Protein 1
Amino acid sequence: MTIKEVEARTGLSRSNVRYYEKEELIAPSRNERNGYRDYSEKDVENIKKIAYLRTLGISIEDIRDVISEKKALYEVIGHQNEILKDQILEFKKAKAMCEKMLNEESLSYEKLQVERYTEELQDYWNENRPVFRQDSVSFLYIWGSPLIWAAITVLCLLVGILSYPKLPAKIPVQWSNGEATSLADKKWIFIYPVVCIVIRYLLKPFIYVKLQMKKYYGEIITEYLTNYLCFIALSAEVFSVLFVFQVVRSIAAVLAVDTAVLLGLLAVGLIKMDLRGKGM
């Protein structure tokens, strides 16, 4: 059956169905004549099961483990039940606090005294630590700030100024297998801060247009990628200097580490933003 028929049978939108397929929770076959997805009755039943478990708060990862029989459904439901018990307890505490505040004769922000509603303020903060972890400024915002771009650009300039007197007349600008394949005048070391400026003021608008995402995410991720590219420029500059003095030989390892760390932190930042958006 077609995805339109799946929508009618399940009551779910095609974006939900596509998402479950993207997460490899379902794997519909392909129609050999036209190449379109051909959903089976089993796919429809699986989609309904997956959607139902999601309404219980079960994570995609846990659902995937249940489907692949890495975890038993009973175990996953039991774990989620304990999580919900804790959440209900927290909600009851918050509800009782709200009711206590509503019983005040005059309730306003100006007159609000937090200590009246908590016995030990520090203990109360500690009990609500998960909330503050969500409220804290994530790496994604910090890294995407103009201040970080300015810091990277200044560092590029400083590295050039400090290393210039000690550099040979010609420095490597391209490498292969630990060997320099192309040389340029040592003034080339100052191209890196210029690259940072070009990235921010010429390349950044192009990146934003190409992302074609929601405005909220598009702006943040554009800033992130802009600063990331500048960071790559800084890494390449530092590598050039270290290569000249035979401290390191392979830029691939340097860039691989840069990419792994920054992509990992981007993922953490996006997950945190999603959790904040869901009010978790």
Protein 2
Amino acid sequence: MKIKSYKNFIFDLYGTLVDIRTNEENPYLWKRISELYTSLGAPYSPGELKKSYKQAVNEAAEHVQKKGEKIFGKEFLGEPDLTAVFRQLYQVKGASCDPKQAAMTANFFRILSRQKLQVYNGVKETLQRLRDNGRGVYLLSNAQRDFTRPDMELVGLTDCFDGILISSEEGCKKPSPVFFCRLLERYGLKPDTCLMMGNDVNADIAGARGVLMDTLYIHTETSPPFIEKPAADYTVMDGDWNKAAEILLTAAGQ
């Protein structure tokens, strides 16, 4: 397999660099989070809070999608900020909630729902070697700010990138070309100098190919199912990060 040279490397986060497992259906989660709301002046039963949360998330997603389509067209895929949803759930009960409290609530929700959070072996060392070799290293993640930025702090990834784009902060998500182009424009990158690595055939691989980036697909335990073989320039089908690192470092001239 011939490997090209690239100046910039763009990574998905969850399932690509980090192994994460969450369970938002756990009754214990809704019991504890409802206790938090109630103690802060917004009384909810666990069942009521779960239902209200899911309804508010759907409404927020619909609003962001309609607003974005008016500007960018049908290729747009919206991503709501769930921290605003957590804040709204206080306010509909007549309780005050400032941005700091909303972010704390979102973080608490994440802690309660998170079952596993672990960086794959070799990730940090590879990212550092890419940067040491003068390559740009960027993160493009479909994620929630107040879930993901604390997650990254916990596993020590925050300072591993030259730029980070999180979908909830941008209001759009992969595989929309809007999200990819925002990264390219913000950091002055040309698609033909970039290699996108991800574990999702649609969001990461098809999305990157849609803006003419080359791609590296890694199949991990949390990869979404697919029917046809990923149409990526490079593939690691057994989840072995050592193989992925070899491709990345070769592509960086090491």
Protein 3
Amino acid sequence: MNDFLANIADLLVYRPDAPMLFSSGTFWLLFLLFLPIYSVLSRYRLGQQAFVVAFSLYFYYKCSGWFVGLLAATSMVDWLLSHAIARSRRRGAKRLLVALSLTCSLGVLAVFKYANFALWNWAAIVHGNFHPLDIILPVGISFYTFQSVSYIIDVYRGRVASTATWLHYAFYLTFFPALVAGPIVRADRFLPQVTSPHRPNAAEIWAGLWLIILGVVKKAVIADYIAGYNDLIFDSPGAYTGFETLMGIAGYTMQIYCDFSGYSDMAIGLAAIMGFRLEPNFNFPYKARNLTDFWHRWHISLSTWLRDYVYIPLGGNRRGRVLTYVNLMATMLIGGLWHGAAWRFVFWGGMHGLGLVVHKALRRRLERVPDTWAVRAVNWLITTAFVALLWVYFRADSWESAATLIASVFTRFSPQHIVPFVQTRLLWIALMGVIITAHALPTRFWAAAQRWFVAAPWVVKWLIFVAVVQITVQLAGTDVAPFIYFQF
């Protein structure tokens, strides 16, 4: 009995070596316990909201330990300042309060995420010794900080009213499906759902389950399996042939998509089951035929956030061509730095910014080119190759590793390595083929597949669910792999 209670206690407390993930059995056990209580409380709105906030804070505790206190404090400070902004009648006072809020939110983010980066750069400038501070990055701090910033700015602009209670704001900021890795939730779209909750019907619940199944397949089946080979390539730059390195780069290109979009699918599906609508975060980004289209499809909640709270406030495209290009570059550099405290991420963002500038500068000329199949194919190939090569800087451990990997593709490539690779990596190739085929199919196919699943008999749904669980168990390693975007 004592051993049983000890195991339960171990399950409920935070373990730094095993944070709770959507793809873990612990989360699904807790969510299955959460759902009936959530449903019973639907008649008691205040009680249901308090229960969701409590569960969300506990979920974050299981992900990031006692940093849950930082999240709770952030929500309280935001709520108090938003009320002060709403009550203030003087524009100067409002701006001062907004500045105070942004200083608090972005200051905390800067300390945890960028302090060592800043100290390292300062030491390099003054030729001093650099001793990294022992700082642990709270999980998901970049995501909920951006939500906090957008809420305060929207209250200042009058786009949303400050929430009547702290509970409503805490519900928005800590909502567990989107808390640690997005999508970045916008207050003007989510808060009305908090104050006027929607009870999901059967079709919406089944549609949510469909998204969860897709997310599990993307993350736990495809991304986690192909990551094994990709890690070999990136952990030993130059140790493999050009073709093997190219496959590792292509593999990571698909891995990061499946990993992150899989999380987003699960988050949106969980929210749908609870009666909430989160905006889509991915729209088959590797179908894009130019970089502008890619950023309309990739991490949509971040790209639209950067557009609305960075690019447009800087002036957008309203101040002439040159300043438009400067604003684009500045926005993408900030987007790169948001992803990580390293110059490689800044370079990654800057190169995407440069690509967007080039596309915008040439758009009118490109529109005069005949829209033939060959032209579309060339545009797609250039866009995909550009994106894939830049992912190398996103994944590699250093500038030298990234340069070695890219050089290997162009200097050590030989077709004779194709056949041995195919013979030894059949399952890896098959899973890569699955996600490539998924992109190649028309978007309407997936909409039709969802409608079919929703309308299918429960026995069919159950068989699909069991099959996905079985495949996941068969391919899973000894540990549940964390989501890539947890580090951001």
Protein 4
Amino acid sequence: MVNIVLVEPEIPQNCGNIARTCAATGSRLHLIRPLGFDISDRAVKRAGLDYWHLMQVQDYENLEELFTRHPEARENLWLATTKAPRDYTQASFGEDCWLFFGKETAGLPEDFRRANYARCIRLPMRQEARSLNLSNSVAILTYEALRQQGFPGLSGQGEMAEQE
């Protein structure tokens, strides 16, 4: 199981795309407030997120609440940041890992990054590029974590395999 943590996400479309990734992979989504959008049942239905029922989503007032409710997260966390000293291929994503992503305009809080320096990773990209889209970054790291775990609970083949 992969736990995706979005710290103060701002753009509802990104969260919707990330929610779809979580639904498809069986990952859990954790949202740290404040949120830049409404996640009430009514808002979710209006947005057409028909896969929301396939997900486990929890929200928290702040990071402290998340760590109080899930102390195990401190043991197996990874922080995605463009400021990281190493790329994600150097990370070993264990079972039930926690992947943290910051808000679109500012990333993860500096004090949180500094406190977890050894667990900060980045996606390689051209120096002139500021960053990738948040939902793309989440998808890349989620699938890498699942690949390292052997894609537990996910189908290893598509319907074309049945045609052979």
